Amino acid sequence: MENKKKSNFSGSLGFVLAAAGSAVGVGNIWRFPYLAAKDGGGLFLVIYLILVLTFGFTLLTTDVAIGRRTKQNALHAFGTIRPRWKFLGYLTFLVPALIMTYYSVIGGWITKYLVAYLTFGGDAAAQDGYFTDFITSRISPIVFMLVFLAATAFVVYRGVEKGIEKFSRFIMPGLFVLIIGIAVFSLTLRFQDQDTVRTGLQGLKVYLLPDFKGLTVKRLLEILLDAMSQLFFSLSVSMGIMITYGSYVKKDVNLSKSLGQIEFFDTLVAFLAGMMIIPAVYVFFGTEGMASGPSLMFVSLPRVFEAMGPAGSLIGLIFFVMVLFAALTSCVSVMETLVANCMELFHTGRKKMSLIIGVIFAVAAVIVCLGYNIFYFELPLPNGQTAQILDLMDYISNSFLMPFISLLTCILIGWVVKPSWICEEMESSGHPFGRKKLYAFMIRYVAPVIMAVLFLQSTGILNLLRSFISR
Ligand code: PHE
Predict the structure, then answer these.
(1) Atom of ligand 1 at shortest distance to CA of 25?
(2) What is the pTM of this model?
(3) Residue with CA nearest ligand 1 atom 8
(4) How far apart (Å, rounded) are the C-alpha atoms in residues 245 and 8?
(5) pLDDT in tens, 195-239
(6) What secondary structure does DSSP assign to 275-334, as a single string?
(7) Cβ neighbour number for residue 367 with a 10 Å cutoff
(8) What is the 233 CA–ligand 1 centroid distance (Å)?
(9) Which residue has the higher pLDDT, 398 or 43?
(10) What DSSP assignment string belongs to 409-447?
(11) Cα 237 to ligand 1 centroid, rounded to whole Å
């Protein structure tokens, strides 16, 4: 029982910054802007905002309140709520375990680019084939991954208050300042050749104005699903992370207010990331320049920085510092969840567990790195993409497990234990839970349906059904 000393955040600000640190990650920076550009600019923004306030709020509230009420990690929390639902804890634990295998690999890529810009190699990074050459090489991705993983493990090793909270207090405001700086700079950009002029402000219009061109019901549904899966990944819900962080929140903290702040911060950073990336890409490469996923960050943006001229090297450097901050705080939350769950499970101390988990996932991440050379394969996924090891892990955790876990959590909370169980916890500090009715309605009726559709869509079952019906 010597491990019963429970870790805690010092207060509500520490919690908000750490949770926002988890939520703000590469998803905000490389996925949100890409989706916004693809899905009709302002139209996507409005849909996303509505979803954050309803659906995102519901899932985040559920996770954090489960954590604070049970004071346990996912692995034990669900079993405490209802012994028959213990399996859900195990299922939830799988998500950070899968994510951890590849998040540090991506963190390593970011570190590599940061080092490239630091050593004036930004222009080299803009050349064709740079990214592919790097990730397919044998040693270098492993070395950078290890550096990133060691930094993550160090923060977790230091503990909740001295490590995670202190680190987030310093990094999150820094990230915020950097992103505003680049976003404002993006708006001042201008490109001109013989017959075209494109400016940052025109790019801003592309981002903000709703584009209804060619909008059909089917297209609207697609946008809706894109926004939903983005939101869900972006808030780090349904992976046990917010349950763990919730368990560190003291009982007198006004949860309702803190959760509002986390939603706000995560959405604001995503919005600013769009403001920084879309106009810049638009100015130099037009509307066709927006690539998806990692290639947006590791291929297109270095080209944009190169096209900016001398200022580009500095902007590139600041940009990768910022992304590194975002990725580190997210990876810390994933690793913390693993360490905290295992500490509970094996009754070991934090320091020892951080080292063990660090080593295990270093090995796993090496295998993921080798997925681009020795273990290279091309696996077609049900959602139409071709996967290497990294994409496969990402697919199983985010497209398959997360909607499924969310669906089960909604059923458990909405129908088995009833929403009042969560509402009681939200009000236990003596503060009102303003969106109580909305919460109860969402968790019982709306969220389970949405999660089921999302699950059917990302597993490819929806398409299968569709082609079956139209046959
Ligand atoms: N929420 C993070 C983002 O938006 C992603 C993340 C995924 C963080 C998994 C932690 C765990 O990028």
Answers:
(1) 12
(2) 0.93
(3) 330
(4) 9
(5) 889 999 999 999 999 989 888 888 898 898 889 889 989 999 999
(6) HHHHHHHHHHH-GGG---HHHIIIIIHHHHHHHTTHHHHHHHHHHHHHHHHHHHHHHHHH
(7) 14
(8) 6
(9) 43
(10) HHHIIIIII-THHHHHHHHTTS---TTHHHHHHIIIIIH
(11) 9
Distance CA 410, CA 442 (A): 9
Ligand 1 site-directed mutation target among 330, 333, 334, 406, most atoms within 8 Å of CB: 330
CA of 235 to the centre of ligand 1 (A): 7
Q: What average pLDDT does this structure show over 97-121?
A: 96
* Closest protein CA for atom 2 of ligand 1: 25
6's tokens: 């429970």
Provide the b/e sequence for 113-130 (b: ≥16 CB within 10 Å). bbebbeeebbbebbeeeb
Q: Which atom of ligand 1 is nearest to the CA of 27?
A: 12
Q: How far is the CA of 195 from the centre of ligand 1 (A)?
A: 42
Query: Is the Cβ atom of 330 under 6 angstroms away from ligand 1?
Result: yes
What angle, rounded to 10 degrees, do the helices at 350-370 and 310-346 form? 130
334 is written with which tokens? 């994933």
Q: State how far the alpha carbon of 257 is from the alpha carbons of 193, 251, 429, 430, 432, in Å.
A: 50, 14, 11, 12, 9
Cα–Cα distance for residue pair 362/368, rounded to 1 Å = 10
DSSP string, 133-200: HHHHSSSHHHHHHHHHHHHHHHHHHH-IIIIIIHHHHHHHHHHHHHHHHHHHHHHT-EEE-SS-EEEH
Separation CA 241–CA 233 (nearest Å): 12
* Residue 29, ligand 1, Cβ within 6 A: no
Q: Are 88 and 412 in contact (CB under 8 A)?
A: yes
CA-based angle 271:273:277, to the nearest 5?
A: 125
Q: Is the CB of 229 under 6 A from ligand 1?
A: no
Mean predicted confidence (pLDDT) in 65-72 = 96
Lookup: tokens for 371: 């997925």
Residue 25, exposed/middle/buried by CB under 10 A (0-12, 13-18, 19+)?
buried
Q: Which residue has the higher pLDDT, 384 or 54?
A: 54
Q: Beta strand pairing status for 190-192 and 386-387?
A: unpaired
Distance between Cα 188 and ligand 1 center (Å)? 30
CA of 27 to the centre of ligand 1 (A): 6
- Which residues fall within 8 angstroms of residue 468, CB to CB, at 6 or more apart? none
